[in-house]
Predict the structure.
Amino acid sequence: MLTIEEFAGRLKSYLNSEQVNLVRRAYYYAEQAHDGQTRRSGEPYIIHPLEVAAILADMHMDHHSLMAAMLHDVIEDTGIEKSAIAGQFGDTVADLVDGVSKLTHMQFENKTVAQAENFQKMALAMAKDIRVILVKLSDRLHNMRTLGVLRPDKRRRIARETLDIYVPIANRLGMHNLRIELEDLGFHAMYPMRSRMIKQAVREARGNRKDLIAQVQKAIAARLEEVGLKGRVVGREKHLYSIYKKMQSQSKSFAEIMDMFAFRIIVDSADSSYRALGMVHNLYKPIPGRFKDYIAIPKANGYQSLHTSLFGMHGVPIEIQIRTQEMEDMANNGIAAHWLYKSGEEALSGSHARTRQWLKGVLELQKNAGSSLEFIENVKIDLFPDEVYVFTPKGHILELPKGATGVDFAYTVHTDVGNTCVACRIDRRLASLSQPLQSGQTVEVVTAPGARPNVAWLNFVTTGKARSNIRHFLKNQRRNESIALGHRLLNQSMQTFGIKLEDIEEQVISDQLEVMKMTQLGDLLEDIGLGNRMAYVVARMLVEPGLHDENKTRIETSDNEMPLSIRGTEGMVISFAKCCYPIPGDPVVGHVSSGRGIVIHTESCKNIAEVRHSPEKVLEVDWDKNVSGEFTVELMVELEHHRGMIASLATTITAVEGNIEKISMEEHDASFCVVQLVISVRDRLHLARIIKRLRVIKGVQSINRRREA
């Protein structure tokens, strides 16, 4: 068991005596705070913070991080306030401890929401100071090492959370060693049987191939010496979880995966890396298409190395990574490697530019997310960066997740570019915004000032930034449209009293908002626009403030009330029913649907008949004389079977500026069939023109407009 004196002795190798004493002080403070507390294993609780600090000390972390590690459970488990820690050890340490602490004083509906809220809090603290996540990862690693004492279901839950969130974060920060240990511990906790079987198989396979590995290693080392390159060759172990994932994702057998030998060559400079690459390509034949240069284009987490695959002795495949010692440290410790080369504040200020960029993105995701669950979903998307590297027209490199599209690229460049993009050029050719990008392509975004995000983009975007920005825009757009519609509905109801909303005194409005438990008029108008409140009831309350109980307000209608005009440009708050497909010119009626706004039906629609007797749910509507937009209509066309009949229908509709949204066919008998067409039209006149053209097609027997489901 590690003691504080042994630990302090370790720290003297890279911290000065004053810093070591501060860490020692934090230990004694934590020991006193946790006095009497034990872990599940029965050990004194203080063992855990000390072991967490030891993990950070192996990375040469600064004294603030080590002090925070000693104190990381004090706020959560002992009732000591953040201000007390700040008074004793300063604001920096107090902020780190607070960032790592969970949200203990809040009640959540379920564990998922609690986890999401905790992660959101930690992510924000991490964006301010990266050391928060390094302390948290070390805390998680020690918890995973001591997971055996917990119940199996709890073990699996913690392991799942580790594999889903903490492993990808460690990967994103380039911390290879910590990630691998977390993965293998998580794998063992989730699937103990599978883990044991693979471990046993690896041990046997390694024993059988010792001689061959030694021969290849010796041959590479001898050739390095021959060409005068300083470097060392080490065998690379495949860890259990990566073997398991490869077996799953690539549907390969254990033997196929273990058939690949892996080596790493560590040299003294980047220049020597490329020379070593040439040397191994001379020694063994390279496998085409398997070379990757991560030195010229580093991975998003800062990882740099040359990767190549070769046909080795007896045709056995060999994987080789070539890198410098600094790249090796960066690969193993990631962002924490900065503390190996720099100290304290200098390490923080010079902290990796890419990590900073990512953390800036995390803050933006948080700002736009509607809830902690949405935030965590978006961050998880960004934590699995199987990247493609693409170029901007000016030659800058952007890394995007695999499957990213032109829309993802646009939002990565800038939020405003994403919000106004209409098309993109891939390698100078116009391409669809939904086309997945490939590494090496040059992408240019075409924008238009009046353009706005499309809800359909959510079906194909892959980056969290694009997804959260589109949702944020649509949410705001829906709110603005709801407010505008609510304003129209309220003014329309107020016509009954011969008054407008603008004529009501501000004091009356604020008094009534207080009665309705609302803070601003916009919220009330949005509620009316979404159909959650009745415009007539709100109008009565504003005109006759004495009627405070809106439930007792009588529903009355007046002959003076004008029907609401449908313009076709209201957006998401006015929708058109899919059962009867109303179009301009049809007699229509509005159904006030809670949360959806107003749904427009034709007057003859059977579905509206059920609610016609509830005046609060039905709204008199009419088409505006300047109505614009495209409206969907469904036609049933009965025609004779003949070759090219579908093509004839499609060509005819397109020629009259109609747009086919859906087409399906049902056979009546050997010679007749019914084609169901869902098409977009401007109004009834446009529809009449299309029907007229369709009638003259050879073989068409009848055309009917379908009016209800």
Notes: Residues 33 and 79 are 9 Å apart (CA to CA). The longest strand covers residues 631-640. The domain at 631-705 is CATH 3.30.70.260 (Alpha-Beta Plaits). The two ends are 74 Å apart (CA to CA).
